[in-house]
Amino acid sequence: MSADKVFEALSSASRRRILAFLSKTDMTAGEIAQRFADVMSAPAISKHLSLLEAAGLVWREKRGQSVHYGLKEDALTGTLVHFLGEVCPRSRPFRKESAEAARRKKGSSTT
Amino acid sequence: MSADKVFEALSSASRRRILAFLSKTDMTAGEIAQRFADVMSAPAISKHLSLLEAAGLVWREKRGQSVHYGLKEDALTGTLVHFLGEVCPRSRPFRKESAEAARRKKGSSTT
DNA sequence: TAATTATTTAACTAATAAGTTAAATAATCA
DNA sequence: TGATTATTTAACTTATTAGTTAAATAATTA
Question: Which of A39, A49, B9, B102 is least enclosed, having the fewest CB within 10 Å?
Answer without folding.
Answer: A39
